[in-house]
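Trying the structure run again after the queue cleared.
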Amino acid sequence: MSSLSRKSLIAIGAVALLAVTGCSGGNSANGGGNSSAASLVIDTAFSVETADPGHSYDPTGNMLAKALYETLVDFEGSDVSTPIPGLASWEQNDDATEFTFTLEGERSFSDGTPVEAKDVVFTLQRIQGMVEAKPNFLLNGVTIEEVDDKTIRFTTETPLLQLPAILANPALGIVNADVVIENGGTTDGTDTAQAFLDGTSAGSGPFVLDTLDLASQIVLTGNDEYDGKEDSAYDRVVIRNVSESATQLANLKGGDTMVAMDLNGDQVATLGDDLNVDAVPSGQSIFLLLNQSADNAGELANVKIAEAIRYALDYDALLELAGAGSVQATGVIPPGFEGALDAGVEQDLDRTQAALAEAGYTGQTLKLQFPNDYPVGGVEFTPLAERVQAQLKDAGINVELAPAPFATELDAYVNGTEGFGLWFWGPDYADSANFLPFGPGLKVGLRSGWAAEANPEIAALAAEAASATDADERTAAFTEFAEAMQAEGPFVPLIVPGRNIATAGDVTGAVYNSVWEIDIAEIAPAG
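Done. Tokens:
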């Protein structure tokens, strides 16, 4: 059956980021010998470590890889609910364990050579061989083989209905096998091609890499051999590392940049009529976790404490801190994703008191741990934690704030030693399967000390959703999982932060996409 006939899940992409700070250093985009009247200037706070798609797995890196490399699968605009053909169309068996991809048309790399099945197989096996590469986990349990010059077969150990959505990730952009092999590329884990790909791209995307400076700016130029559907209106693109959102705003208002990627809700509100903004919910969720391990939470290791907190909060008041584009998280699966609940929890103090009584709560103090130097989608965790603390105090729950730097708090969160934590989660690819780790015995569940035997029913629901092969049954399974998590889980979903991308009034097409931030090739002069 063709995967194009099913309704895929929505999700987003985004994981804990490794930020590289910097500043604009002036408008280098508009000066020098390489300047062009058709230059596009983008300001963003860099989260990128390399131009090698096989090693890249962060927002700026995804945006860059999307411009330089094409993937087998794509999405239309900002819609990540339904995968569409990129370089290839596909069919799958009824068990969702075998997928056959067929390259479409005659596509070429930037050196003019054709894109063939061997390039696809090498690209993906290269990532599988590089165990330390960030995207490596995306292809766990997947066998990839060439059938003929145009055909590639994927087989999986278990049903993997989300495989097409996974293959749309820019980190899986197809490289020119011959060129990369000549420059150190291998599939056996000894690959040394990253240095080459940091200086010269080897893809079939609408742009090629001109210069890469991870501290200041990245310059792209048009790919003369590009024969896809996304011909860019600009023959030169400058992506500048501008770490301060206030500087991005000033540059945009002053005409020094055309796209500002990181404005917060308050800054968006100050934009004049001559500037545009795309303000939408992002793919990340901010949530509270209540550890269920007595070793870490003591006598407060009780899901009824989580239930009490869930109904004690005034979510509208919390959203005031989030700004444009933000919405309440309706569950561990955020709004817009397959299986997400239609509405979030509403404050119910009577239910809070009943849950506290059932938990045996007698006024003990909960220590709320959170990173205090890492805003998510413009949401600062310190004022959010302070508002949570005040609301819980009004409901009779005592909270002590324990902020720490991101790097310190990340260790506590990952190692599961937080008794009561404020954290965030973003999916790795556009599929609701990314939220199953909140289940008991799974990654995030275990970080909250919630073992599978603590709630076998929810553990079974997560397994059912993971293995479903029928689209309707899969949606129902995710919905049932989300409902059970809201009723009995140790998590309190709070906010889906907004994502605000602002542009000059004479620019169009800079639309947020949860997988690759923006598609640079879609940006064009208005009209």
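Residues 1-37 have pLDDT under 50 and may be disordered. Worth checking whether this holds up in the mutant runs.
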